[in-house]
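Ticket #4471: structure output looks truncated?

Reporter: J.K.
Steps to reproduce: submitted the chain below (127 residues) through the standard prediction queue, then opened the result file.
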Amino acid sequence: MLEQGRSAVRGASRAAGLFVLLGGAAACQCSGAAPEPAAHRSERTFNTLCGRCHGSDGKGGVAPEGVNAPRNFCDRTFQASRTDDQLKQVIRMGKGAMPGFGNRFSDLDLQGLVAKIRSFDPAPEKP
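Returned output as attached by the reporter:
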């Protein structure tokens, strides 16, 4: 009789665990939260990580004495002299006082960050 009671309790525990597991899965699927669009994610990432030094306007900032100032992305000469792959490399590996982010970003994230950096490129001067 005691064994029957233990078996019933184990069965109820399993059923409760399964209910919680399935309920949690259903909650995840039905939460209504859509994945964040890549452009929004890139904007948020830039403002959170890159904007601290480069400014939300991309104009760079002031550095302590003896350290190069953060890059001004609004500089036409800079924009024209760097390839997208070079920008990705600097994001991954770092340069000077800028830390490298390694593999923290997917290729899609890197493309988004490069697009954000390119968005600061001033319009070419008209002749």
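Triage note (M.O.): checked the attachment and the full token line is present. The chain is about 55% helix and 0% strand.
Status: closed, working as intended.
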